[in-house]
Amino acid sequence: MSKSKVQGAGIEESRIQGVKGRPSNPGIPESLSPLHDETWESFAQNARGLGIELTAEQLERLRKYEQLLREWNERVNLVSRRDIERVVAYHFLDSLVASPLIPAGSSVCDVGSGGGLPGIPLKIVRDDIGLVLVESTQKKARFLELAVSELKLGQTIVRAERAESISGLKFDVVLSRLVGKTDEIAKWVARLLNPGGRIILYKSATVEAELKQAQPALNRLHLQVREVRDFQLPPIARRLVVLARA
């Protein structure tokens, strides 16, 4: 396993079994005007460390999304009250770490999307992907529909149902951020994968025991751990687990 500092931010990345990432988005203005707030300046810098050069338009959309989250979070529990003050520094940045693992032009499904994390931040910076946000809680699904409309996110739809109930859809990438255990998620979404598709799980740095427990289920589903990437983000340590057909 190799480990290296990602240039331009305090983000350390470790890789096991390398997979090529997508090239970073071109061109960030020298000024983030009118987004001069220190939190957003820091976020843009840390995103750059992930190989994502944010444009002023993308930052404007992310800020509008943050505002929507804050407004709706007063009525619907989209983000925990404890985390709402760090939604940019933690949730948005954490959402973006999967971007290099998503091939260009992929069809992507975000299961258990909640308030749209990680799907919406990824869609804002990766307009090339098609996105389906799956959320079974009706109030949260209504928020997602509003956010998709307000942010003018093309090729993005909301499905107000459980992942295990989805039919007639296949995806290149399925995302799951802190939704359930590995064996449960794999059981729900393996059938949704296109040939050559992958499941990307957002896990903690202590996921080894969970993966060991999930191995029998993965074997039955003909899935294997294709890659693991560790990211030491400013607020947390994140481990991405990539599952693919054996």
Provide an overview of this structure.
The chain is of the alpha/beta class. It has a single domain, classed as Rossmann fold. The protein is 33% helix and 25% strand. It has 7 helices and 9 strands; from the N terminus they run ββαααβαβαββαβαββ. The protein has helices at 38-49, 56-73, 87-96, 119-125, 138-150, 182-189, 208-220, and strands at 2-6, 11-16, 107-111, 130-134, 156-159, 171-177, 193-203, 223-232, 237-245. A 9-stranded mixed β-sheet has the order 1-2-8-9-7-6-3-4-5, with helices on both faces. α6 (182-189) runs parallel beside α7 (208-220). The radius of gyration is 17 Å and the shape is globular.
Q: What structural class do the secondary elements suggest?
A: alpha/beta
Q: How much helix, percentage-wise, in residues?
A: 25-40%
Instruction: Output the helix-strand order.
Output: EEHHHEHEHEEHEHEE
**CATH H level: which superfamily?**
Vaccinia Virus protein VP39
CATH class bucket = Alpha Beta
Distance between the termini: 21 Å
Radius of gyration: 17 Å
Q: Tell me the total number of β-strands.
A: 9
Strand % is: 25-35%
Oligomer: single chain
Shape: globular
The third-level CATH topology is Rossmann fold
**Please, what is the average pLDDT?**
87
CATH architecture: 3-Layer(aba) Sandwich
Largest sheet, spatial ordering of strands: 1-2-8-9-7-6-3-4-5
Give the number of domains: 1
Describe the biggest sheet?
9 strands, mixed
Count of helical regions: 7
